[in-house]
Amino acid sequence: MLPKEEIVVRIDPECREAVGEKEVKSVIVVCGDKAVGKFPTLSEAEETLTKEVRSGEVEKEEIEKTWVIVETWDGEKIACKVRLDSVTKKRPPGNHNTPRCTSRRRPRL
Fold this sequence. Notes:
Layout: E1 7-11, H1 13-19, E2 24-31, E3 34-39, H2 42-55, H3 60-64, E4 66-72, E5 77-86, H4 99-102
Antiparallel strand pairs: 1-5, 2-3, 2-4, 4-5
């Protein structure tokens, strides 16, 4: 099981593509059959859901029943699925031989 700190809530990438360059009017988060929040952007909705899952306010099982409805200024409504993801902490490339490690020579005795 993932540690809570590494859990991220992501909105379906296909949905982000469908929204694309359109102006987002509002993002409504719906869990089961009730609306649970309204946000100005997709990213803000993702961040808030992530915080709620990490804090334990929202159960992971509930996220599977969660949808995001994106309303654009031209009246279009796009429904998106939400999924749990994990932040895999990648080491930056070439970090194993930092100057700090390699440049410190032993003093000559």
